[in-house]
Amino acid sequence: MLLAALGSISLAMAQPAARRAVRAGGARGCPAGMAKLPGFCVDRWEASLVDKQSGRALSPYFPPQPAALTRVREVWLVERTRTGDAGARAWPLPEPPLFQLTARYEPMAVSRPGVVPHGYLTYHAAKGACQAAGKRLCSEEEWTVACRGKAGTKFPYGAHYLPGRCNVHRAVHPAAVLHDNASMGLIDPRLNLVVESGKDPLLRLTGATAGCASSWDDGSLFDMVGNLDEWIDDPSGVFVGGFYARMTTKGCEAKITGHAPSYYDYSTGTRCCADLR
C-alpha cells in the first residue's frame, strides 16, 4: 500500500466548482440531488459541504466548525511529524481553503456525484449542515428503507453479502498506515487520503462504487453501505451503514451506538432527507 500524493488526490481535483448546481436526478417534489421515495426525499450521494452564502467548497478533511478546524490543524501540523514511519511523518496536511482560516462561513450539505464526501462530522454538525440546506437528518427508519431499495433487501444490491460490491470491509486501515495503530490519531486530516496498492483510495468519491447502489423507481442512491458512516436523526448519537475500513457484513443493518453526539473522526459523515414538497 502507498500514501496518495497530495497532487493526485487533492481537494481541487476531487471537488468541481462548488457553485455548479447538480440538476440530474432531481425528482418532482424533491430538491435536485435527491431521490423521491414513498413519503420522503433522500440524498442520492453522501454529503459534501459548502459555505451557504458563497457556495465555496469546504475541505472534507477537517471538521467544518472554524474553532475545531483551527485546533485540529494546529495539533496535526506538529503531531504528524511524531507518529508513523519516515514516509508518514514527511507527508504534509491537506491545507483547507484560505477562507476557512480567515473568514466567517456557514456549512451547508450538498448532494453531488464525483466529490470527496465530508468526514469529521459530529451529529450536531451533520444536523446543522442539513438544516442549512433546507433539509434534515434521516430517521433510522427512513435511512434503512432507502438503503434496502425497492426490493427491500439486506444489502443495496441484494439479499447476501458480496465482497467488494460496497466500499466496506477493506483490508487496509488508514490509521495503521499513518500511525502504526488502527486506534490512534483518528482526527488526523490525512487519513482519508490514504490509498491501497498505490491506486485505490480508501475513501472513494461519491458514487464511484457503482455496484453499491440502492435502486428505486426514481433512480439510485449510492454508498449507503460503506465509504463513510452516516449520522441519522437520533440525539443519543447513532451512525449507520459502515465506513470503508469497518469490518462489517451487516449491510443496511450496520449501526454504531457507542459514541456521544459530539463525537467525530475521519469516518463520520452523513446524508440528508427532506419532506416531499
**In angstroms, what is the radius of gyration?**
17 Å
- Order of SSEs: EHEEEHHHEHEHHEEEEEEEEE
The side-by-side strand order for the widest beta sheet comes to 2-3-15-6
How many strands?
15
Low-confidence stretches: 4-25
> Helix/strand/pairing class, anyone?
alpha+beta
Q: What percent of the residues sit in helical stretches (DSSP H or I)?
A: 10-25%
State the shape.
globular
- Indicate the proportion of strand residues: 15-25%
Straight-line N-to-C gap: 47 Å
Q: What integer is the average pLDDT?
A: 91
Count of the separate structural domains = 1
Biggest sheet layout: 4 strands, antiparallel
- Discrete helix count: 7
Could you give the topology of this structure?
Blueprint: E1 2-3, H1 11-14, E2 34-37, E3 40-43, E4 47-51, H2 66-79, H3 86-90, H4 98-102, E5 107-111, H5 123-132, E6 136-137, H6 140-148, H7 174-179, E7 194-196, E8 200-201, E9 213-216, E10 219-222, E11 229-231, E12 239-240, E13 255-256, E14 268-270, E15 272-275
Parallel strand pairs: 11-14
Antiparallel strand pairs: 1-7, 2-3, 3-15, 4-5, 6-15, 7-8, 9-10, 11-12, 12-13
Please tell me about this protein's structure.
It is a single chain. The protein has 277 residues and is an alpha+beta fold. The protein has one domain. Strands 2-3-15-6 form a four-stranded antiparallel beta sheet. A hairpin with a 7-residue loop joins β11 and β12. The longest helix has 14 residues. The chain is globular. The termini are far apart.
